[in-house]
């Protein structure tokens, strides 16, 4: 396991919600954090069919383009009664050709569940795979998960993406309703971060 020894890191993401969460999670470690956009890096195509595969593509692309260690996050929601969909295609389900429409994507998930008459609760998980890649091609991977259920209608305007329809197990608030600090303490991203920090930063 390679430790992170530098003082600057690039977040290999173009998602403002994720970047905000990753900055908050890295704050205690005194690492200076830049985003892919700060380096004018384009978004690589996510051509793999796994979170790990796409996390690797994004992190290596940014590490090569910036000359700095880069941290990517590939994530998504997997719904049991939809055989794991939308999964690695979570962002694609929101694609309209004219930007992303997450309310539309969340409604699509709920409509499919209703059509299938899926038993309640509609079990689901949020998954996050982090890849920390160095410009020399080395990388380290970490996986996180949080289980819960998909609820309808949407609840809350905190967070981003599918947060308003995800109710984590043991909670009364969706990720969309929760205070960001609470989400950071229990999310799929936080789970993966604990492993990253233990291995590379602690
Ligand atoms: O690839 P980058 O540039 O990092 O940004 P992205 O938005 O395209 O990210 P992904 O390819 O990993 O797609 C994952 C999608 O899953 C959703 N998602 C991931 N984590 C989430 C979270 O914590 N809360 C809500 N939705 C989340 C969100 O809609 C993302 O767009
Ligand atoms: Mg993406």
From TrEMBL:
A single MF term (Gene Ontology): ribonucleoside triphosphate phosphatase activity
Per its Swiss-Prot or TrEMBL entry, what cofactor is needed? Mg(2+)
One GO BP on record is:
purine nucleoside triphosphate catabolic process
Question: Which residues are involved in binding Mg(2+)?
Answer: 45, 74
Entries under Pfam families matching the protein: Ham1p_like (PF01725)
Keyword Translocase among UniProt keywords: no
Catalysis performed (reactions): XTP + H2O = XMP + diphosphate + H(+); dITP + H2O = dIMP + diphosphate + H(+); ITP + H2O = IMP + diphosphate + H(+)
Please list the residues that bind substrate.
13-18, 75, 160-163, 183, 188-189
GO CC, sorted alphabetically, is: cytosol
Q: Which domain of life is it from?
A: Bacteria
Identify the catalytic residues: 74 (proton acceptor)
Q: Which UniProt keywords apply?
A: Hydrolase, Magnesium, Metal-binding, Nucleotide metabolism, Nucleotide-binding
Query: What EC number(s) does this enzyme carry?
Result: 3.6.1.66
InterPro entries this protein is in?
dITP/XTP_pyrophosphatase (IPR020922), ITPase-like_fam (IPR029001), RdgB/HAM1 (IPR002637)
Cofactor mode of binding and number, as noted: Binds 1 Mg(2+) ion per subunit.
Q: Which PANTHER family match?
A: INOSINE TRIPHOSPHATE PYROPHOSPHATASE, INOSINE TRIPHOSPHATE PYROPHOSPHATASE/HAM1 PROTEIN
The record ties this protein, via NCBIfam families, to: RdgB/HAM1 family non-canonical purine NTP pyrophosphatase (TIGR00042)
Q: Which family does it belong to?
A: Belongs to the HAM1 NTPase family.
On subunit structure and binding partners, the annotation says: Homodimer.
Summarize the protein's role: Pyrophosphatase that catalyzes the hydrolysis of nucleoside triphosphates to their monophosphate derivatives, with a high preference for the non-canonical purine nucleotides XTP (xanthosine triphosphate), dITP (deoxyinosine triphosphate) and ITP. Seems to function as a house-cleaning enzyme that removes non-canonical purine nucleotides from the nucleotide pool, thus preventing their incorporation into DNA/RNA and avoiding chromosomal lesions.
Give the protein name, as stated in the record: dITP/XTP pyrophosphatase
